[in-house]
Specification:
This protein is 12% helix and 38% strand. It is mainly β. The chain folds into five domains: 1-200, Pectate Lyase C-like; 202-312, no CATH class; 319-462, no CATH class; 505-543, no CATH class; 589-631, no CATH class. This is Right handed beta helix domain-containing protein.
């Protein structure tokens, strides 16, 4: 039966459903329980917008099937959608060009409306959705609370919130397989998110000129471009422990006036840029943020961009670790770059400035641990460490400059400083090395003479840990992190290599043995040679060694080559040429006409050609002139 204006119950009748939800004059609360059934509006609704105008209506427990070119628009206040599955292909903008279109759209008709609640709903667009239709589109004015929802297959965005008067709270929601962004907030809206996921979209979480707070536990998986992006003078705060896996950019602040603040322990894996500030954007990272297997770790690109990292941030297995490319980059205490294929810390460009905090480390970076080029400036803090790199600290051109702190740790002091083409490096007052004095003292003194300045070698002081500190989630205490690493011992001298005598077997160092004269004359490799402890052993072993001696083998090969050359030179018999017309040999004759001779026919073919009375055309070039027989 049709439900009354103030009643609640179960309905599956389309006419009754439409009658209730289109009543904009009644504000009495009503609940429409679909009882787990499906309501299809195919053939029952012709308009492109199916409006729910009634306020304080609750629709629960069922499925709504929307026809092609039709979307569901919520205009009443206090509407509640609970445990619903909403399916449809979506709609084109049409006359609503400036309206944000969603399969479910919310556009209130009054200021300061009562909040709309959407709970445990699934919004599913067809396999071929409209390219202008989002899953859930919210326009101002609106106050919406969304929790436990799933949006899949949108032709545009999963959740699109637009407008100054929009306030949205989202928790435990997942968006998958959308053509544009999983979550898009623009036009100065306000949003708070908790534990949300954006997967297999073009972008993950995008803030354009809005104020967005992303809580802990949100993540982006498999998106192709941006993970968390803030642009167009927006402000975005990302909570602790958020992550991005795959795509072009992890966390990005784009454009002047845009500010992105990232919490502690956030992680980026397998992207092009990990943490990226560009075009004047400002990016602030918390402590223990990490980047793994990306092209760039922490990158401040273009003039006016600023990127600041917290303490103990890390980059591993990337091309460049911490890079200021015409922007400004400041690192915290204990940051480290490990196994980068290019540079650990780099500053490039006339406006670039990289300032490292104390106890930063660059380990096993192939090109350079700390490098400035193209006019870049770099200030290295105290107790920084560089080890296992081609060059530890280098400035490559005249405008570039590097300033080291008072104490600098070098894995190999000989490679510590390098300046090319007039670049300047203010060297450390104290150079420390983790290796013992017996192994490194002489090298340090020679290096001092080459550099022509005094360097003090301190041994026995606190050692810099050779490995990065653990993150807080690994439950390591502060005392364990601060515990000095064991001192590295000088490498032991290798034992001399001994070789046995080829005759008597007495093992001696190679320098004390005599090489076979034949092997020496033939220039054989050491593993092919025979060594003897004395001339007597060589004379006793000459008969047994001669067949395998490289000199004997070389002489034998030369003799065989000379014999083959002689046989080739004395051979005068040439293979008989076959007739080109009948394939019979020999073919000593040819045909000549107009100064051209074609050789290679036999006597029989030549005789047959001579007997011709009329057609004596050349069989090769088909020249009509008469061809005469030529014999060699």
């Amino acid at each position: 039966e049709p439900l009354g204006a103030a009643s609640s119950g179960t309905t599956t009748d389309v006419a009754t459903f439409l009658k209730i939800v289109r009543d904009a004059t009644t504000t009495t609360p009503v609940t429409l329980d679909l009882g787990g059934h499906t309501i299809s509006f195919e053939g029952r609704v012709r308009e492109e917008r199916l409006y729910i105008d009634r306020s304080f209506v609750t629709i629960t427990n069922g499925t709504l099937l929307l026809p092609d070119m039709t979307v569901l628009v919520l205009r009443g206040q206090g509407i509640k959608l609970d445990r619903l599955t909403i399916k449809g292909p979506g709609s084109m903008p049409g006359d609503y060009l400036f309206e944000q279109i969603g399969l479910v759209s919310l556009r209130a008709r009054m200021q300061n409306p009562e909040p709309v609640h959407i709970t445990d709903c699934s919004i599913q667009l067809d396999d071929d959705p409209s390219p202008e239709t989002s899953g859930l589109a919210i326009s101002s004015p609106a106050h919406v609370v969304i929790s436990g929802c799933t949006i899949t297959g949108s032709g545009k965005c999963g959740l699109h919130v637009s407008g100054r008067a929009c306030t949205v709270t989202v928790s435990d929601c997942t968006v998958r397989s959308c053509q544009l962004a999983g979550f898009l907030f623009d036009a100065r809206c306000t949003a708070k998110l908790q534990r949300c996921v954006s997967a297999k979209c073009t972008h993950g979480f995008v803030c354009e000129g809005s104020n967005v707070e992303v809580g802990p536990g949100c993540r982006v998986e498999g998106c192709t471009e941006y993970g968390f992006q803030c642009s167009m003078e927006g402000a975005m705060t990302v909570g602790d422990g958020c992550s991005v896996k795959g795509g072009e950019h992890g966390f990005a602040a784009c454009g002047r006036g845009s500010r992105l603040t990232v919490g502690a322990g956030c992680k980026v894996v397998r992207t092009v840029f990990g943490f990226w500030a560009t075009e004047g954007g400002v990016l602030q990272c918390g402590s223990y943020c990490s980047v793994e297997r990306c092209q760039m770790g922490f990158d401040s690109q273009s003039k006016g961009s600023k990127l600041t990292t917290g303490d103990h941030c890390s980059v591993a297995h990337c091309e460049s670790g911490f890079a200021a490319q015409e922007g400004q980059l400041t690192t915290g205490r204990g940051c480290w770059a490990h196994k980068c294929s290019q540079n650990g810390f780099e500053s490039a460009g006339p406006t670039a400035l990289l300032v490292t905090g104390p106890e930063n480390r660059a380990v096993a970076c192939k090109e350079g641990c700390f490098q400035a080029f193209d006019g870049g400036k770099m200030t290295i803090g105290d107790d920084n460490l560089a080890s296992q790199g081609k060059i530890l600290v280098i400035a490559q051109d005249a405008p570039s400059a590097i300033t080291l702190g008072s104490v600098f740790w070098a894995g190999d002091p000989r490679l510590a400083y390098g300046a090319f083409y007039g670049a300047t490096i203010r060297k450390a007052d104290t150079l420390k090395t983790a290796l013992g004095p017996s192994a490194m003292e002489g090298q340090v003194m020679r290096w001092q003479e080459q550099q022509q300045h005094a360097v003090q070698l301190l041994v026995g002081g606190p050692q810099v840990p050779p490995v990065p500190p653990a993150q807080p989630t690994q439950a390591r205490s502060a005392a364990a992190i601060a515990k000095p690493a064991p001192k590295l011992q000088p490498p032991a001298k290798p034992a001399p290599v001994t070789i046995p005598c080829a005759y008597c077997g007495a093992a001696k160092p190679q320098k004390q043995l005599k090489k076979c004269d034949g092997c020496k004359a033939a220039g054989a490799r050491p593993e092919q040679c025979a060594f003897y402890c004395s001339v007597a052993c060589e004379q006793e072993h000459v008969a047994a060694h001669q067949p395998a001696c490289p000199a004997t083998l070389k002489a034998k090969q030369e003799a065989e080559a000379a014999e083959e050359a002689a046989q080739a030179a004395t051979s005068t018999s040439a293979p008989e040429q076959e007739c080109l017309l009948c394939s019979r040999a020999p073919a000593p004759c040819g045909l000549a006409h107009e100064g051209v001779v074609h050789m290679g026919i036999c006597e029989a073919c030549a005789e047959q050609h001579t007997r011709k009375r009329y057609d004596r055309t050349c069989p090769w070039c088909r020249t009509p002139a008469e061809a005469t027989v030529v014999r060699v």
